[in-house]
Structure formats: C-alpha cells, structure tokens
Amino acid sequence: MSVQMGDSLILPRADGSHVTEWRRSVDWQILAASTMLLGLGLMLSLAAGPPAAERLDLTDAFYFVKRHVVFAGAALVLMVGTSMLDRVWVRRISAVVFCGSFVMLAAILIIGHEAKGAQRWIELGGFTLQPSEFAKPALVVMAGWLLAQRQLYPGGPWAVVALVFYVVTLGLLLLQPDVGQSALLTAAFIVTFFVSGLPWRWAAMFFGGGLGLSVALYGLLPHVRHRVNSFINPSDYDTYQIDKASEAIARGGFLGAGPGEGTVKTHLPDAHTDFIYAVLGEEFGYIAALALIALYGFICWRGLRGASRVRDPYPRSAAAGLFALFGLQAAINIAVNVSLIPPKGMTLPFISYGGSSMLGIALTLGLALALIRRQSTAAAWSEHG
What is the pLDDT of residues 311-347, one digit of tens each? Predict the structure, then answer.
C-alpha cells in the first residue's frame, strides 16, 4: 500500500525500488503519446524511405527504413532511460552532455562535414552527428538550474552566467551557420528565463538584441536573405519544394490519397526528413494532419501543466523550456510545410528520418519527463538535503 501526501508519493519499503518509483511517478500519457509519434514515424518511413533511396541510387530500397527503425528503437530506450533520472542527475548528465556537445560544436568549424553550404555535422565512426541537437536540451537544463540559484543565493551572478553560456553557444551555431537552430534555442532559453522570473530590463534586452541580430543576419547571410525574400515575393524566386509540399497537402483533401498513393515523396529530395508532414497530408489527409498537430499539442500542454505544478524553481523552469523546445520545433516544421513561415530545414520530432534529431528529441523529452515526475519523500530529501 502506498500513501499520497500532497505532491509526494511515499512508497512502502517493499515497493521502494527505483523502477517501481519511476513507474508510479512518470507521466504515462506523455510517454504513450511520444511512443505513438515514433510508431507513426516508422509508418511514414515506409512510404518516404524507398523513393529517397532510389533517388540516391542505393541498392537497398529499405536503407532509410532500416536505419529509421534502429534510430527509433534507440530513441525510445534513451527517452525511457533518461526519464528515470532524479533531478540531481538530470543536472549532472546535462552538464556532461553540454560540455561534450560544446567541444564538438567548436570542432565542427575546423573538421566538420559540410552539406548544403553549412558545416553542422561531425563524422564519428562512419556516422554523422549533429551536436546542436544535444546542446539545446542540455543548455536549457543548465540555464534552468543557474537561474533557480538566484532564489537560493541572491548575490551571485547566476543570470549573467546563464546568458554567457547561451551567447557562446549561439555564436557557435551562427558560425556554421544554422539560423533555424539558433532561433529555436533562443526561444527555449527565453521561455526558461521567463518561467524563472524574467525582469523587464532583461525582456527589453532580449527583444532589442533579437531584432538587431535578425537584421544583421539578413544583411550578412545570402541564404537567409534569399529565404526571407522568397517568402515575401514567391513569384520572383524558385520555391519548388515549398510549392510541391503545399500542393501535396491540398491534394490529400480530408481523407488523403491513400497509403502509398502519394507522389510528393518522389519529387522532393527531403521528403523523408524536412517534408515528411507533406507526405502525411497527401496520403492520409487533413484529418490525420490535424490529429498529428493535436498529438504534439497534447504533449506540450500536459508537459507545461506538469511543470507548473512543480514547486522547485529549477525543474519547473527547465522542464518548461524543454517542452517549449519540443513543441516549437514541431511548429516550425509544420509551418514551413504549409507555407506559413520562410523555409527552414528542420526535422519533425520523432517523425522525420535522422539519427541526431531522433536522439536529441528523445533526450529532450526524457529530461523533461524526469523533471516533472512526482518526487518521493526520499528523493526530495536527497535533492535538498
């Protein structure tokens, strides 16, 4: 028998194992919804993977499908395993991940693998790894912990230290250049800062700095200028991929053309990654496309609600930033597919093909789930004692 007291769960000695405590404290609805996303990603990989392999003249038509299965399995294990951490170990693991990712982000500028005009990947043992996918959630957790220290030790420069970590990481991302990931990291950092108690002067600084940086990037980076201009005046630029994606979603109608009957996956080179939402819309229709949005919305709503119920400022602000990171990435990808924002190469969480993205999202949700878990009395004393 267990006794519930407030937000804490007191477990009897016989049921006090770590796994038992995790089972009773984890948010199973978020875990189930995330697993559904992984399953849907596998199904869509069967549709978009073979055409992608054919375009690249690969002998194995299911090359991307097989790798997607491996990535999805590893992501599920990573998400569940990370969700078992207590809040102290969430902070420690995040610090280690951030340090490793930071070193690789710096190394990319020297030995990075270049693709599509940017150096965002590093080759490790025959695989390409995108360190930014792991740096983002780790930085959000570190920022949440640093900002929470203001309440415990008011005299320390905690906000400045968090800002320095963010600015240096942002600089490395912009040097690749990766404007999309930079914007995503900035948004998640601001959410973390806001939840922890964002003073008005900091809010004004973020607004002014963001506006100035946006103008500078538009003037300095030709590809940013091209994407913004093509969004504003599409008739003057080549918008083939966006046009095809929008047409495919419109062609699907309410019920879709049917599984395997879509054609956009044969026309777009990134149909299995950045434009997988268009494949879903064409083959399964508006109903499925809206259901997917609802699934992302449910995870974010439940996650943010769970974060709001946490009393400790560190897990509350860090979890809010992590769920914002997850939700905003999904929103950006979908918005690009339906031509609501300028085009940006960003994967759809747990749906698109890509090992770094899949594992990075798994780490993000795993850390977030760990932070909003109900804490037993023993865990609470371990954390604060």
Answer: 999 999 999 999 999 999 999 999 999 988 888 878 9
Phi-psi category of 8—alpha, beta or left, where left has phi over 0 and alpha has psi -120 to 50?
A: beta
Question: What pLDDT, in 10s, does the model give residues 65-76?
Answer: 999 999 999 999
CA 13, CA 376: separation in Å to the nearest integer?
12
Please name every residue paired with 118 in a beta bridge, in sequence order, or none if there are none. Answer: 115
The whole-model pTM stands at 0.90
Residue 341 burial (CB < 10 Å; 0-12/13-18/19+)? middle
- Rounded CA-CA distance 279/252 in Å is 9
The span from the CA of 78 to the CA of 264, in Å, is: 32
Name the residue among 20, 101, 71 with its Cα closest to residue 351.
Answer: 71
Mean pLDDT of the residues in the chain: 87
Each domain of the chain, given as residue ranges in start order, spans 3-384
Mention every residue, 6+ apart, whose C-beta is less than 8 A from residue 12.
1, 2
Span 232-252, mean pLDDT? 84
Compute CA distances 330 → 72, 103, 291, 364, whole Å: 17, 27, 13, 13
Residue 375's pLDDT is 67
How many residues can be counted in the chain? 385
Which residues are bridge partners to 114 per DSSP?
Answer: 119
Tokens for 109, please give them. 């500028």
* pLDDT reading at 289 higher than 60: yes
pLDDT at 115: 61
Residue 25 CA to residue 22 CA, distance in Å, equals: 5
